[in-house]
Amino acid sequence: MRKWIVRIVLGVAAVMMVGAVSSYLFIDRELTRMYGGLTEVADPALSKEGMDSYAIFHVNVLAPEGDRFLPDQIVTIRDGEIRSVGNSTTIPRGIPSLVGRDMYLVPGFTDSHVHLWESENDLLLYVANGVTQVRDMNSLPVNLRWRDEIEGSRIGPDIFAVAPQFATFGPMEGAFVGWVQHKTIVRTAEQVDKAVQDYVAKGYDALKASSYLDREGYIALSAAAAKHDIPLVGHLPVATGLEDLWASHQSEVAHVEEFVKALDREFGGYGADTAEDFLTFVRERSEDVADQMIAHDISVTSTLELIDSFQRQKSDLQTELGAAKLVYENPGIAEGTVITSRGMGWLPDVNIYRWPDQWDDDRKARSRLYWQTYAEAQHILFEAFMARGVAIMTGTDANVPVRVPGFSLHEEMAALQAAGMSPAQILASATSVPGDFMGTSTGQVRPGQKANLVLLRENPLEDIGATDAIEMVIIGGSVFNRKDLDQMLDTVKAANDASRTVPIPVAEGG
Ligand SMILES: [Zn+2]
Question: Quick one: pLDDT at residue 95?
Answer without folding.
Answer: 85
